Amino acid sequence: MAFLYNIGIRVYGLGIKLAAPFKEKASLLSKGRRQTRKQIREFKRGKDRMVWFHAASLGEFEQGRPVMERLREKEPDTKILLTFFSPSGYEIRKNYTGADYIYYLPGDTPGNASRFIKTFHPDAAVFVKYEFWYNYLNELHRNNIPVYLISAIFRPDQPFFKKWGRLHRKMLSFFNCLFVQDGQSVELLKNIGITQTHLTGDTRFDRVKQIANTAKDIETVQLFCNGHPTMVCGSTWPPDEDILMEYINNYSGDYKWILAPHEIGENHIKAIMEKCRKKTARYTQAPADIAECDVLIIDCIGLLSSIYRYGNISYIGGGFGVGIHNTLEAAVYGIPVIFGPKYHKFNEAVTLIKEGGGFSINNSAELKGLLDSLVNNPAIAQTAGEKALAYVTSQLGATTIIVDKLIHQ
Question: CA–CA separation, 403 vs 376, rounded Å?
Fold first, then answer.
């Protein structure tokens, strides 16, 4: 199985090189890996303690971030090495000041893994949520370097629990501890002989609480809201925007609407504005009379997690595509969270619905019925928001448990 795995890794690496001239992400990954190989050759390992964190992309980075930052608080002299698999993580966080070294992870070949571990020789390694690379894990194991998986969640349909998943099960055995999000994961792992687990929950709860505590005032948004109740629609995609705009265009009450689309290309922003029959403003081109506008389009990145604080209701996009985006960023502000039908792989969304702080809709008619209820009955919306916040608060603390283990390992 390892032989076939290594062939697959090499074929994948070749595919990235072939696609590089035609695909931006493949080009960034190919160039980034070349640069990383050069950086590894030039790297000189000092005597300080070093902990290696690896995240697939931006979402996993946000789960690892509170652990990195808490570790730095507790052990300021410990060096932090951070690697990414995806350009969408590396390119956005390559200047993150919470890590001392930030690289792309070289392809998971035996040679790359051996060189990487020999060069950096971390004192511990932390993989976030979904990342399983056989040769790196094997090399860490052979060098007796403790390795941990954090914010992990397991489902019965994953390879670990299939008859043909022996190599995947072996990867799990390399971890000194798997910090998992829920009880089902503990039981699934126990059934295949993996008992070095710790039920801690998801570090994203700690992260969104940290963000909320440091949320910045956004003057343009304050001026737009102007004391009106507001619905914040975050990380939306065209199917989300179509049903939202149908409601907004037919609404005649006191609410205002903020849309922060997932894609902020000029054509997409213009398409949204063309669909909207209300008085609309763009964040980066805010007019002097923005308080008179009904809809605000956020046409830049980096603001959404703070914008939710201005909402009375939230809608999270992605539920009509591959899956919903981050519901917790909104729930932490004590507002109800609405999303589309594809949410079942997201434990926090399932639980938000169960607790009464979240709602799923399948079409525009369901959205209308739900919003009519929440918009016209502020007490109902407030109660749902309180339940959402109570759920987030109940899940805090995973970061402290994990960092304590890293410090005392």
Answer: 45
State how far the Cα of 69 lies from the Cα of 82, in Å rounded to an integer: 12
The SS3 of residue 226 is: coil
Tell me which amino acid residue 165 is. G
Rg (CA), the chain: 23
- Give pTM, 2 decimals: 0.85
Contact 34, 17 (CB under 8 A): no
- Helix ranges (H only) for 121-265 are 134-142, 166-173, 183-191, 203-213, 219-225, 238-250
Q: Distance between CA 10 and CA 5 in Å, rounded? A: 9
- What CA dihedral angle connects 190, 163, 105 and 76, to 10 degrees? 0
Nearest to 395 by CA among 211, 181, 190, 244: 181
The residue type of 366 is E
Query: In tens digits, what is the pLDDT along the chain, a chain of 409 residues?
Result: 788 888 998 998 899 888 888 888 899 999 989 999 999 999 999 999 999 999 999 889 999 999 999 999 999 999 999 999 999 889 989 999 999 999 999 999 999 999 999 999 999 999 999 889 999 999 999 999 999 999 999 999 999 999 999 999 999 999 999 999 999 999 999 999 999 999 999 999 999 999 999 888 999 999 999 999 999 999 999 999 999 999 999 999 999 999 999 999 999 999 999 999 999 999 999 999 999 999 999 999 889 999 999 999 999 999 999 899 999 999 999 999 999 999 998 889 999 999 999 999 999 999 999 999 999 999 999 999 999 999 999 999 999 999 998 886 6
* Closest to 215 (Cα-Cα) out of 324, 89, 327, 303: 303
Structure tokens at 331: 């729930």
3-state secondary structure of 227: coil
Q: Which of 280, 287, 283, 284 lies closest to 256, judged by CA?
A: 280
What span, in angstroms and rounded, lies between the C-alpha atoms of 371 and 374? 5
